[in-house]
Amino acid sequence: MDRVLDGGLHTGTITHVYGEAASGKTTLGLQFVNSACRIGVRTVYVNSESSSPIERLEQIIDKRFSQIEDMVRILIPKSFDEQGAIIDDLELYAREGTRLVVVDTLTRLYRSVLEDKATNYVAHRELNRQTGFLKGLARLGDMAVLVLNQVRGVPGDYSAFEPVAKNILDYWADYVMQMRIGQSRAQRFIERTRPEGDRKTAVLYLTRRGLSSTPEPAETGKWSEERTQQGSTPDV
């Protein structure tokens, strides 16, 4: 991931990661949280998903959440409006030493309010405002902002997908990465599409401790498959 991102997540920027369901976006986000904890950097994690990330974070970090809760603040919006209010107040939630903000996922609650042309316009404008605020927070607060995103199908091409609210995220994001499921349940392809130029890719594997450059042995690899099938791990 350091190679794909030219050294990792960069403060002052938004990194946009999108992928189909179960592609490992949440695992990737939590792995960056783990890396931040290791170097003494605090994180604010905005979780709009229906399941809690705490169990998966404990597996990745190999500690109880109670041991690292001073380093990670998890905020849970219940509606799109509440998500906007939380994003507006992120500076208040960010304790001293906070350098990482993760939003998982930015567009889930946005999609829940899309109904007709009028409401869609309002929601689209609000999502643009929220993302712009995150960009300002990254620059002015010297933070790295990681935005995880869902996908939708591309009309006329049943095998392709694109990020939800592509135009908005393309406008604000500095780095963009796509995650895809590979040839096995554990294999994942990650491709950086922005900054433009040489497209950098990585092949990684879902393991109990997160994404790894090598797959787990068959016995522990079975854990990853079972967890994916049961849906008990968020977005794994």
Quick overview of this protein structure:
This protein is α/β, with parallel strands linked by helices and 236 residues long. The protein is 36% helix and 28% strand. Strands 3-2-4-5-1-8-9-10-11 form a nine-stranded mixed beta sheet, sandwiched between helices. A two-stranded antiparallel sheet has the order 6-7.
What does this structure look like?
The protein has a single domain, classed as P-loop containing nucleotide triphosphate hydrolases (Rossmann fold, 3-Layer(aba) Sandwich), CATH 3.40.50.300. The protein is globular and about 50 Å long. Helix 1 crosses helix 2. The two termini are 18 Å apart. With 236 residues, the chain is of the alpha/beta class. A 9-stranded mixed sheet has the order 3-2-4-5-1-8-9-10-11, with helices on both faces.
Could you outline the blueprint of secondary structure elements for this entry?
Blueprint: E1 13-19, H1 25-38, E2 42-47, H2 54-61, E3 72-75, H3 80-88, H4 90-93, E4 98-104, H5 108-112, H6 117-141, E5 144-149, E6 151-154, E7 157-163, H7 166-172, E8 175-181, E9 187-194, E10 200-207, E11 210-212, H8 218-230
Parallel strand pairs: 1-5, 1-8, 2-3, 2-4, 4-5
Antiparallel strand pairs: 6-7, 8-9, 9-10, 10-11
Helix pairs in contact: 1-2
Q: Which properties best describe this structure?
A:
alpha/beta; 8 helices; 28% strand; 36% helix; globular; 9-stranded mixed beta sheet; disordered C terminus; 236 residues; Rossmann fold
